[in-house]
Amino acid sequence: MDQAWKRLESDSELNTALNAYYEAMRLRRRHPSLALLTFVAAIEGVGMRFVPDALCECHPECSHYKGVAEKRFRKALKTVMTQREVKELAATLYDKRSHTGHRGTLFGSEEVFGYAPTGPFQVDPYFKFEAVLLGQLALVANAVLVKALSEPSNEAATG
After folding, report:
1. What is the pLDDT along the chain (159 residues), one digit of tens a residue?
2. Helix, strand or coil for residue 55?
3. pTM given for the model
4. Measured between alpha carbons, how far is 138 from 21 in angstroms, rounded to an integer?
5. Beta bridge partners of 55
6. Is 113 left (phi over 0), alpha (psi -120 to 50) or beta?
């Protein structure tokens, strides 16, 4: 535990990723689509250590950065999942993240203010997104952060 606190004190990017994870946990019940976006951002934050920012190469004077967020997401997932698992999870969730982040699309029960009218033999239409997909993402985000926090810091390895 002491090692994790030291990591957070010395690694602002990891600290930011952990804060995003906890915010996603707080959002999960009432704002599931925003929770998905924030869980993915937390994982991307861990992925920053594997995929640095890169300038666009469209012309020599271009000062824009390439989009590397999805690559960061996948690289961070690979620290706790197989390539096949990463492919399956990313295919399902990253598009939803993009739709929420870039279009404002909502996938959970926030569309109906948390109320999904169902009968006794009907399945809640939001169950798969909120309980299954978001639940799986929360567990994976936790695993990615635990792995990152449990690894020795660069300072400890060199000092």
Report:
1. 677 777 777 888 999 999 999 999 999 989 999 999 999 999 999 999 999 888 888 888 888 887 899 999 999 999 999 999 999 999 889 999 999 999 999 998 887 776 666 667 666 677 888 888 999 999 999 999 999 988 876 544 434
2. strand
3. 0.84
4. 8
5. 65
6. left
